[in-house]
Amino acid sequence: MEQQDFFSMPRIGDMAPDFSAVTTKGKIKFSEFAKDKWVVMFSHPADFTPVCTTEMTGFAKRKDEFTKLNTELLGLSIDSIHAHLGWVDNVRKNTGVYFDFPIIADLDMKVSKMYGMLQPNESETAAVRAVFFIDPKKKIRLIMYYPLNVGRNMNEILRVLEALQTAEKYKVAMPLDWQKGDKVIVPPPTTLEEMDARLLDKSIEITDFYLAHKQI
Ligand code: BEZ
Description:
The protein is α+β, with helices and mostly antiparallel strands. It has six helices and ten strands. Helix content is about 30%, strand content about 20%. Benzoic acid (BEZ) binds near residues 45, 50, 51, 126 and 149.
């Protein structure tokens, strides 16, 4: 494989590259997938492996929480559709948990390469644990990359999804460790006029002109 092939790395703010793929729920064209919804697209290194099984189980068990946040899940690994089907069935038989969301069978690595999920110094054949948070306009809003040997944190995945949506809705920013219900950051002023107005604003909690919180 050409080294160059590995280096397609979409970045925050980029439009999500479009693709067609075979999934466990049939063929999809990404630009037509989940219209008007957020998408959490995530890769796992391989079917029938332990850490991946715990992670996929986590996504499946908390799918309702993603649905409440107007978000569709889309998994991916460099495995065949037959491996995917066998694994989904195996986990359902063993644990009763059903992976009820599409999982891309990316055998030709097309999507993995397009999204920088193949990181050759980690593995040349398996995708790393990536998570792409993509908004309803198909813009990439947040990216996580984890190595093969460390599973992701489902609370953090849901936390940042809610943080992104709340920041967008209220035109605010989220402080360290923000959780739903916590105060948010009022974006700092960008002109002297705004700075003077900010210092007189009684509706927000001002520490100084550049640091102010409010409850939403
Ligand atoms: C796992 O999911 O357990 C795993 C997959 C690939 C490499 C290492 C661990």
